[in-house]
Protein 1
Amino acid sequence: MAVSKPPITAELTWEGGLRFRSKTPRTEIVLDSEGTAGPTPPEAVAMALAGCMAIDVADIVTKGRHPLTLLRATIVGERIPDPQGYFVHFTLHFVVVGNVPAHDIQRAIDLSHER
C-alpha cells in the first residue's frame, strides 16, 4: 500500500477590500484582486501550474545526470471574457540550456504533463 502525502492546508484571512493573506504551515503570500500587494488568484494558479511542471522537468533532467544550466518556464493562461474569467487553456513554453538531448527534455515534459 502506497503511503500518501499529508494533506495541504492553507488559511486565508481577509485584510480588507479584495485582499487576503494566505498561509500554509510553512509560508505565506498575499492574494490581491488588484494585483498590487501580491498575485491575483488566477495569477497564483498559473504560477503554481508552471512551478509544478518546471520543478518536475528539472528533477527528471537532473536525475538523468544531464547538466542543466538554465530552465525557464513561461505560461499563458487563456480565460473567458466574462467576469468570472475562468481558464480554458494553458500554453507552457520551456527554455532549457545545458547538455541535455532534446528527446530527454521532451520526455521530462511529457512525464510531468501526465502527472
Protein 2
Amino acid sequence: MTKVVIVGAGRGGRALLEMFMGDSTVSVLGVADVHPGAPGLELARRLNIPVSTDFREFIIDPNADLIIDVTGNPDVYRTIW
C-alpha cells in the first residue's frame, strides 16, 4: 500500500483525495492546507483523515511514501524538497 500526504487542499487536492479514496492500494496519511476551510480539508475531516494547516507536520512522517504538493507555491516546494 502506498502511503500518501497531500499538501494543498483546494480543488486539486480535493480531487486527488476523492480519487485516492476509490483506490485500495493508497492510504492517505494526511491532508494539509493553510486555509482551514479548504474543500479538501473538509472532505478529509469527514473521512477521518488527519488534517493540518501546517504541512510540515505530515512531511516529516517516516511512513509517507509519497508527498504530493498541489499548492503551486515555490516556497512550499523548496521546503518539501
